Amino acid sequence: MKTSTAYGGPRRKLVLAFDLGTTYSGISYSILDPGQVPEIKPVTRFPAHEHITGASKIPTIIYYDRKGAVRAVGAEAKDESVFEKAEEEHWVKAEWFKLHLRQKTANEDRNLQNIPPLPLNKTVTEVIADFLAYLLQCASSYIQDSHPDGASLWASFRNEIHFVLSHPNGWEGKQQAEMRKAAVLAKLIPPTPSGHSRISFVTEGEASLHFSIYNGLPDGAMKRGDGVVIVDAGGGTIDISSYSKKIGSSKDTYEEIAAPECYLHGSAFVKMCAEAFLRSGLEGSSYDNPEDIQHIVECFDKTTKLRFRDPSETQYVKFGGSRDNDPDYNIRFGQLKLQGTDVAMFFEPSIECIVKAVKEQHRKAHKPISHVILVGGFAASDWLFNKVHEALAPLKLNVMRPDNYVSKAVSDGAISFYLDHYVNTRVSKVTYGNFCHIPFDENDPEHVQRVSNTFTSVSGNKRITDSFDIILAKNTQVSETQEFRRSYFREYEKIMGDFKTATFNVWCYRGAVEEPKWKDVDKGNYSKLCTIEVGNLSKLPLQPLYRAGVEGSPAVRYYRLSYDIVLLFGLTELKAFVAWKEEGVEKRSETKILYDVDPADE
Fold this sequence. Notes:
Oligomer: single chain
InterPro entries: ATPase_NBD (IPR043129)
Number of strands: 30
CATH class of the largest domain: Alpha Beta
Mean pLDDT: 89
């Protein structure tokens, strides 16, 4: 897969994209030569997978021994000899660990209670770091083995590689910060500002758009500017994004036209539904034990699930030999017989989720939508594709799948994101704002209702707390260069030496109130996004002011520090600055963005 334009950088460069999936992961890369059109290539050879020609993904699994050391990763962890050794030496398997980094919500699907726990004394960040280190090792071996003078080539790049890490649409700055920390632990980058700058993040939806532009995005939709919904159906998540091409622009540019969504209904949850069904259905049988059930479920996942197409046909799970029989439980000659309608039931939550999500995008999009593109490993299921196609037909939506390796859409698309950067307008997923205090208005019933929240400021004015100042409303289209500015001030009785740091919180509102105004209304749907730390405030000018004295006493001097917080929401990462005026000229300083760590992730 080639990108559209020649690389204009001054010297050779290597870009690596890691698609860390819930169940399977992949790697793509591009060697950039000045003046040459870059080519995007997948890593197709992994340890213990050498016999599988063109394998572009490996299982996202790690085995740890009892001391916490990594013993087997990826395809190696699926080897039968590893199973035996893991059992003998009591190794611990980590799988689906990516989901532990998700945005926790109060109303999570009950299926999430069945996500395998993390190994004891391991944080999710540490486990991700171990897997990223393994992916880097795989990329190193493949590139050195596949290119002329590969060892020298790799050595010339090793300390300057740019990494693109993809993540589900639902992840935000907190998850990005933990992934960057994992990249440092994995020694992908050093813990320095220049090292941090060698990491880029892209949502799986946006990466899939870039892949689809080259591998199946309808020409008609691109020319007319119609909207296209990208459904990235993976192992753990279903990521839904909508885009349209900007007509009349000098180069190919796209805009997001609806807030992206992320749902935990990927193919792993089909397996989870099958497991629950089989545990119940085989209760009392000769195979009613955890080891046999797990083996049958794995066989279902590898074969029956993939080939399922027709619920009117009986389905079989081949898991044993001719001596495995239990006719009372539909087991004969090592095969478990299932009704096709039961297998269809395992898929139903995921199909219903995709259809409902696409309809919601269709309803909320800023432009008309005409096409739906399914990518990701789960999209290879003909049953899933046909049922989604059938359900969306009444809306006259054209449902399609790219012909070219839908399973590696994210890693290839992540490289294209770095090189081509087609999207320059995105849509806000939530309402962003800040809690602040405002002047108390005795004629405003809402203020009077909250009189207990009032106080007298340093300047002597009565103010009320916990007012929500909206900075960016949900479902608003935002360009990458668009700035959102809010003016704030702090008041001091006296100057206490040099001013140090100050903090400013950015909050999210995720509820249904269209214009949230107060913290005590729908309180449970507010959550802190991040803390912006403003550096040395001594740079900012202090303004001396006076307030009236009490009962004829002299006026009292106090000081006001005025500044603006400037936020950029339209990038794939939040950016923030503090701005102030010096002799009428605006000055700016970068800030540090801090994200709270969930105690459950420690």
